[in-house]
Each structure stands twice: as C-alpha cells, then as structure tokens.
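Exercise: predict the fold of this chain.
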Amino acid sequence: MGAAGRQDGWRFLPLLVTPLGFGVCAFVAARFVQGSQGSGIPQAIAARHLRDDAERSAFLSLRIAAGKIVMTVLGLLCGASIGREGPTVQVGASIMLQAARWGGMAQARGLILAGSAAGIAAAFNTPLAGIVFAIEEMSRTYQARTNGIVLSAVIIAGLASLAIVGNYTYFGFTNATAELKRDWLLVLSCGVVGGAFGACFSSSMVALTRRIRRWRATTPLRRTLFVAVAAGVAVAIIGVLTHGMTFGTGYAEARSAIEGAPLPASFFIAKFLASLASSISGIPGGLFAPSLSVGAGLGSALGQILGSPIGLAAVLGMAGYFSGVVQAPMTAFVIILEMTGNHDNVIALMAASVLGYGTARLITREPLYHALSRLFIADVLRQRRALTTAPVH
C-alpha cells in the first residue's frame, strides 16, 4: 500500500475511534461517575437550588470533578465536539463546595457560585466574563454579599492562571472595527440569524435530551451506550466529510476566522450538528468553545455574502449565536470582548448580543442551562418521593 493509501486509511480511523471513545466515556459516566454527564453547568445550577448536602453531592463532589477532567480530555482525544469551559464550572463548584464542607461554612450556595465563576475565568482567562456569568447566568440575581465571594474567587483563579500559562487572549487579537454606515447590516444579520440558530440548537438539545431520558428509563445502561455510540458515529461521519474540521473544540477554526481567513460556508452547519450530537450523547463536555466556533463559522459565511471583513463578521457571529444559545447577552459580549482583545467593537458586540438574545426569546422562552438543570432537580425530587413513600420493614 502506498503513502496515499495509508493516508486514506488513517482518514477513516475516526469511524472506529470516535464511537468507541464515546461509548467508553458514557459507560464510565453512567456506572462510576454519575452526575458528570454533559456540560456540568446545569448540575451546578441544580445544586444551588438544593438544600440537602447529600443531594448536592450527587452533582458536585471531588470524585465527580476528577472524573469530569479525565473524561473530558478523553472525549476531546476521540474527536468529540465539546469544550473544557463548562466542565471547569462543575469542577470549580465542586472544589468550593468541598471547601465549604471542610470549613463548616454556611454559605454553600455562594461558594458554588464563586467556584463556577472561577472556572470560567480560569478557562478563558476572562475575569470580567467570570463575574458576569455568575451574576447573569448562574444566579440570575445580584447579591452584594455573595458577589464579594465571587470576586475573590475570580481574582484567585486569575492569579493562578497567570502564574501557570501567563497573560493571553484566548482567540488572539483582531484589529477589525465596525463602522455604522458600512456594517449595520452585518451587525443586524449576525444578531438575528445567529440568535435564531442559537435558539434552534438550544431547543433541539432540550427536546432531544428529554426524549432520550424517557426512552432509556427501562434499560438505562444499554440504551445510554446505544445513544453514545450512535452520536459518536454521527460525529465521526461529519468529521470525515469535513476533513477533520469539526473534531474537538473548534478553537483553531474560530481563531483563523477572527484573524481574517474565511471558513467554508458549510462549516457552521457541520459544526452545529457535530456539537448537537456530542451534547446529547451523555459524555462529559462543555458547549462554550464549540458554540463560539459555530458562531465564528456563521459570521464568516455572512461576511462573505455581504462582502464584509471576515474577522469582524466572525466576532459578531460569535456574539449573536452564543447569546442565542445561552440567552445571556451580557456574558456573550463580555466574554468575546475579553477573548479577542479588541475594545473598539463594544457597541457592535453589544448590539449583536442583544439582537441574538431577543431573537432567541421569540423562538424559545426557556434558557438552555436552566431547562437542563430542571431535569436534574426533577430526578432528585423523584428519588426523594420514592424514599419517603417506600414501605418500612
């Protein structure tokens, strides 16, 4: 077999490795690290709503944190379209909750919030986004006492990140600047179209997750593995067809678009489908980085259609799409602002984020992470009722 034949053989290797890796991750999560599946942000939100420490431990513990780290890395190695940012939220919240237990602290809910913020701040090197994420997405309220804890945790996480990896911008720098007369249509398009696609992703994920949970109730482990392997096959096929562009976080593709290199017009659809399949598969992994990659691909496509600068279009596409997925516009524009290091586009980013949020609200009223957190809370309530109604022997 010649070199070309060997290269063709390696190209199709993900068709075996990716489904197998998905199956292994789903099996370990279901049998040994229950509560580690998916992003981890819904579990942290659910834990904040629970008062009983034993019930919180089902979602936040050092065992779950360790398993989350290992299986997220394994998922990335086998090509899953996942990110590390959601898992860092659950890991940070688990560590802070354990610290509260060891210290006998009463402010467990505040420390869960602080750990979540620290996870985002450290993962992206975006301290302001960590604070805004905690206030807007995790708590959906402002409490001066709690936010003092959040600020302290973010500062410590930021210092640790600086000490280990230094000061950096996640997606590098972009000099593209929006001009009102020239780029108003681009801002409008990225916000509205991005928000619509983001809402479609969010509503599809919630609907599919609910259906899968009902379907696998009779034989949980067998059907969990079936879903994981089937999702792995879908991700592998999409990855092979796109020559590997949709595997992993999508960081390289998003960064190249931000730096001005146009992405294939079909990239954002392929990455959208790969991310959806990975998210419903039941393996641990986050949504932040893949969503930003989808948004960059969408912005790149719109930029090519409208004849706008690709770097600017990619950034605005990220803002509109990500805001549509999580329905947290302040978090969206702050995190993208910090990750690209370009403060000349504040107004344009804010506009795209708000338009994305508004469009998403017209399509689905329920924010993604909070909808998923209610599924976890419902599981806890069912277990609680089963224990209270069980006959005493």
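Check your answer against the key: Confidence is low (pLDDT under 50) at residues 1-6.
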